[in-house]
Amino acid sequence: MSKNKCPMHGADDQWHGARMDFSDAMSYGDYLGLNQILHAQHPLSPNHNEMLFIIQHQTSELWMKLMLHEMRAVRTHLQADDLPPAFKMLARVARIMDQLVHAWDVLATMTPPEYTAIRPYLGASSGFQSYQYREIEFILGNKNAALLNVHATTPEYPLLQEALNTPSIYDEAVQLLARHGLPVSAERLAADPTLPTVADASVQQAWLQVYGDPTRYWALYELAEKLVDMETAFRFWRFRHVTTVERIIGFKTGTGGTAGVSYLRKMLDVVLFPELFALRTEL
Ligand code: HEM
Ligand SMILES: N[C@@H](CC(=O)c1ccccc1NC=O)C(=O)O
Predict the structure, then answer these.
(1) Is the pTM of this model over 0.80?
(2) For residue 279, which of 195, 192, 216, 220 has the smallest C-alpha distance?
(3) C-alpha angle 212-213-214 in degrees, rounded to nearest 5
(4) How far is the CA of 124 from the centre of ligand 2 (A)?
(5) Largest Cα–Cα distance of the chain, in whole Å?
(6) Among 127, 136, 152, 273, which one is most buried in terms of CB atoms within 10 A?
(7) pLDDT for position 84
(8) pLDDT digits (tens, 9 = 90+) for 31-73
């Protein structure tokens, strides 16, 4: 046996017959668009740590892209009363959020002096201007028309406006409750989709009925718990953001123009699916 013959299957080289020439076939990098992705890091400062800062945000935006892809499909499946695929997707969204929660551990290796060396190069840019993040908030029901102004001069504006005008995943879950014969008030069913979710007594009663008889309402019960999983994971993300920010910049004003940590702390009070949390006191 020549020294380059594979002992496993006798191929002529030691790489198990792997194709080496991709001049006329699609390769790994072609399929994944790696030329674009891996050439999209352009540090502005001479500081070593800026690469971490850029890649942390780029990977987060990629995961957000997948989350939105899943969340929009969840909404469509809920509208169609097609719950099993929605459950699968909601589980995936919660796991992606967990991934983003743990990603903060990487960024937390950046110390205040390291970030201070980069910060002047960021200008007025801020995560506050992340249109994918804003769409995630909107699709979860945390609507705020005023925040559209940040994007008024960008190509994403119409997309975000549509996201503001479209009922949230939770609005669709509430419609589903009604279609399953649970008594939801006409006011809630006709709620303005551009406004943030407001707790509604009839919705809480409907969910209470579901939690009171899981066997009868198993699919709705499972939906409720999947929504609670998703909101819990999202709260962890917010918490890790604000604690990491405090660790790195203390109480400095944000580059996006907000008060910084105090603004982010206020966001910890947002409850996306209010009745699903409130009902727990009643069980
Ligand atoms: C050194 C790291 C970071 C610092 C110091 C920081 C700081 C801040 C501050 C102060 C704000 C408030 C808006 C402002 O005035 O700028 C903010 C908002 C935001 N940041 Fe970060 N951030 C960091 C990392 C990240 C990362 C890794 C992400 C992930 C994509 C992110 C996403 C966001 C988003 C989406 C908002 C808007 C939040 C909202 O409106 O509720 N940030 N950040
Ligand atoms: N708001 C941050 C800046 C910041 O974190 C940032 C800047 C540009 C791109 C993404 C960012 N991340 C999240 O806010 C600050 O005040 O330092």
Answers:
(1) yes
(2) 220
(3) 110
(4) 8
(5) 81
(6) 273
(7) 98
(8) 999 999 999 999 999 999 999 999 999 999 999 999 999 999 9
